[in-house]
Amino acid sequence: MNQEIKKILKNSMITSIIVFIYGLVVRSPAVYLGMFGGCIISWLGFYSICLEAEAAVKIPSFQRTVTGYLKRYLIYGIYLGILIKFWGIAAFLGGALGLLNIKFNIFIMTGALVIEKIKCRLKKFK
């Protein structure tokens, strides 16, 4: 796997652990069941995307990639459905935020990269 992908997975796992500890401190099931569970499912979904991308490079298959996509979103839907049925809207919203864990980490990494490039350009002008 690419180093950047490994870094994203590592950072999202650290974020998941922080969310879990925060959920235990505030003793909120919306946080430690919803958000932490969403973070873990998001992490597994991203890992699944990476494996599917590697397999698609070796043997291109439209059907395999679409099937993987549908499976991931079915898992996300079932997870959110279980949260809303048994723990209510707060856990559902926490789970939805948890599912965005990977996207938040990618956004933060990209933002840090842009800021670093801006710093390099500003140093050239001094």
Summarize the structure.
With 126 residues, this protein is mainly alpha-helical. The chain is built from five helices and no strands.
Describe the overall structure:
Keywords: Membrane, Transmembrane, Transmembrane helix. The chain crosses the membrane at residues 7-25, 31-53, 73-93, 99-116. This is I-protein. With 126 residues, this protein is mainly α. The chain has one domain. It has five helices and no strands. The longest helix is centred in the middle third of the chain and has 30 residues, at 29-58. The chain is flat, with a radius of gyration of 18 Å. The protein starts with a helix and ends with a helix.
Distance between the termini: 39 Å
| Helix content class | over 70%
Give me the oligomer status: single chain
The string of secondary-structure elements, in order, is HHHHH
What count of structural domains? 1
Mean pLDDT: 90
The DSSP helix count reads 5
Coarse structural class: mainly alpha
Mind describing the biggest β-sheet? none
What general outline do the C-alpha atoms trace?
A: flat
Q: How big a fraction of the residues is strand? A: under 5%
- Poorly predicted regions are none
Compute the CA-based radius of gyration: 18 Å
Tell me the total number of β-strands. 0
Keywords: Membrane, Transmembrane, Transmembrane helix
Transmembrane segments: 7-25, 31-53, 73-93, 99-116
Organism: Ilyobacter tartaricus
Protein name: I-protein
